[in-house]
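Following up on my earlier thread - several people asked me to post the actual chain instead of describing it. Fair enough. Here it is, all 325 residues.
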Amino acid sequence: MSQAGTAERNGHSPSWTWAKRGLKLFFFIAVPVLLFLLVKNLDWQEVLQALRSYKASTLALAAGVAATSYLVYCGFDILARFYTRHRLSIAQVIPVTFVCYAFNLNLSSWVGGIALRYRLYSRLGLDVPTITRVLSLSLITNWLGYMLLAGVVFSAGFLELPPEWSIGSTTLRLIGLGLLALCAAYLLACRFSRRRSWTVRDQEIVLPSLGQALLQAGLGALNWSLMALVIFTLLPEKAFYPAILGVLLISSIAGVITHIPAGLGVLETVFITLLAHQFSKSTLLAALIGYRAIYFLLPLLLAVVVYLVLEKRAKALSEKNRAAG
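Reply from S.P.:
Thanks for posting it. Predicted structure:
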């Protein structure tokens, strides 16, 4: 039987079979290259020096907050499991989500958030429409939480912008109110919309229930809050948490706009610009280097190991299925 016939017999179209092969080739080439570029651009001596300036208890607390944040993010795909009703267990979902999040933060959303999700979930047996719905719900959860937090922080005036910033603090408050309105519109649609599904390019989009939407908002907001808490933990006691959260939210959008992996340089520039009147440059850089090491680099190292284990298990499962067939 031809390869196309075998693919159709197994429930996959020939185009999806070739897409998976292309994805596999992409990861064999792109991931090592991106990892090399990331490591090459890091000043490891500066990272170690910044970490040595902190007490062990402070680093342990920051690491604990970071671990909690990753666990909360895994809740995005766990919620998507109940939303799509796919057959994978929570024990299978958590390592996949962890790996995708770590790669997403360090190597861009195209690698971690999208391509890696499709590869790992497809190797576990999920079809493309289900993976797309999982990815969509995760993205909405993340940005719904962002809009909720940013709406509160910006509209409440917790963050004062420098005079030279063109948008100004008043405009920032209006942006915050607009974000809260968008959140309310989504929640109201989930509660009252009579039409619950749409088909876009052969992909069905199903509106979640109000309960699921509230969980989305809560999980997304909690994850962003914990990210800011890691930085707050590494700053002096005089730091004002809502302001730190607001700066992180602004820097994250700047990172998305610039498309720089891990937001290298963008995060530091925004924090120094907005908080230079409160902290010295060295204090801010030490906290941000510590944040990158604890929240980005250490999870990435662990994620690489978990990824290799997942690939090995998937290969063994594939060989077993071929032998059984």
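The longest helix spans residues 281-324. That should answer part of your original question.
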